[in-house]
Amino acid sequence: MIQQRASMDWMLKDLAEGVPQTRNVVVLSSDGLRMAQYGADNDTADRLAAACAGLQSLAGAVGAELPHSEGKMRLVVIEMDGGFFYLMAAGAGAFLAVLADEGVDAGLMGQRMRDLVIRIGAHLSSPPRHDVEQAR
Fold this sequence. Notes:
Largest sheet: 5 strands, antiparallel
Transmembrane segments: 83-104
Strand content: 25-35%
Domain Roadblock/LAMTOR2: 9-100
Keywords: Membrane, Transmembrane, Transmembrane helix
Helix content: 40-55%
Number of domains: 1
CATH architecture: 2-Layer Sandwich
Protein name: Roadblock/LC7 domain-containing protein
InterPro entries: Mycobact_SerProt_Inhib_Rv3364c, Roadblock/LAMTOR2_dom
Distance between the termini: 22 Å
Low-confidence stretches: 132-136
CATH topology: Beta-Lactamase
Mean pLDDT: 84
Number of helices: 4
CATH superfamily: Dynein light chain 2a, cytoplasmic
Order of helices and strands: HEEHEEEHH
C-alpha cells in the first residue's frame, strides 16, 4: 500500500494544482479508509474518508429508488457555504473525494476528476478485505 500511495501522490497533486481553488484530494476505499491524499493532513483526510463512506452508501440507497438503476453511486456534488465537495466512484471499491473553495470551476473539476479516474483507475481499486480467520 505504501508503494501505491507514493505512486498516486503526483497524480493527486496534478489534480489539485491543475484546478485552482482545490483544497484537499483524498482517495478512499468503499469502507472509508484513506488510501492516499494530497493537501490534507492525515487526520483531516481520515475524517473526509470516513464521511465519504457514509455519503456513498446514502447515495446508493437513493439511487436504488430510480427505475432501471442498480443504485451504484457515480458522482455526488455538494455545494455549501464556502465551497464544494465532490465524491466520484474511481474503480472497484475506491472513490475519489475533493474539497474545493467557493471559486472553483465546477465543470473543470468534474472533467479533471474523470480524467484522473480514467488515467489511473486500476491503481484506485481497493480489493475486498478478507477476515484473517477465513483466510486460514
